[in-house]
Amino acid sequence: MPERVEKPDREWKLKLPPEAYHVLREKGTERPFTGEYWNEKAKGVYRCRGCGTPLFTSAAKYDSGCGWPSFYEPASVENLETAEDRSHLMVRTEVMCAACGGHLGHLFPDGPAPTGMRYCINSVAIDLDLEMAPDEVERGAGEGPRATDAGEGEGSA
Ligand SMILES: [Zn+2]
């Protein structure tokens, strides 16, 4: 699990630009086709704009036509949290950063193979890191200390 990032609201307000604060901390939504990344094709890793946790990669980004950056899977499932969102007379699945709790967007079951899921994310809630390659992100599940050197030299003589 990512390390929790807790800040009082006034610190988020100072740290984040107003549009990012509105989305991340007040669960706002940017207008479609207006964000920085909905049509972005560059390779890299999308980090949380609040705390820098790697959330999505360009490898799973696809053109959904919805006007927001869309991904069919997260960089690491451990870095995201979801919750039921019943606002606006709809039942949707809200997607949040697991480290800072920042609101990112919503999850819809209309994505492409292999997952069939669409992570519909506000551009202003994420930040594309061009220096980091998609395969550099730790996948989370199944990660653990390697046992290759364990016991070397033991048991002989
Ligand atoms: Zn975060």
Helical fraction equals 10-25%
- Cofactors and ligands: zinc ion
**Fourth-tier CATH superfamily name:** Peptide methionine sulfoxide reductase
Q: Looking at CATH, which topology would you report?
A: Metal Binding Protein, Guanine Nucleotide Exchange Factor, Chain A
Radius of gyration: 18 Å
What's the helix-strand series? Answer: HHEEEEEEEEE
Number of helices: 2
Q: Can you list the strand order of the major beta sheet?
A: 3-4-8-7-6-5
Average residue pLDDT: 91
Biggest sheet, in brief? Answer: 6 strands, antiparallel
User: Which residues sit in consecutive blocks of at least 5 with pLDDT less than 50?
Assistant: 142-154
Structural class: alpha+beta
What form results from the Cα inertia axes? Answer: globular
Number of strands: 9
CATH architecture assignment name = Beta Complex
The top level CATH class name: Mainly Beta
Q: Termini separation (Å)?
A: 42 Å
Beta fraction of the residues?
A: 15-25%
Summed up, the domain count is 1
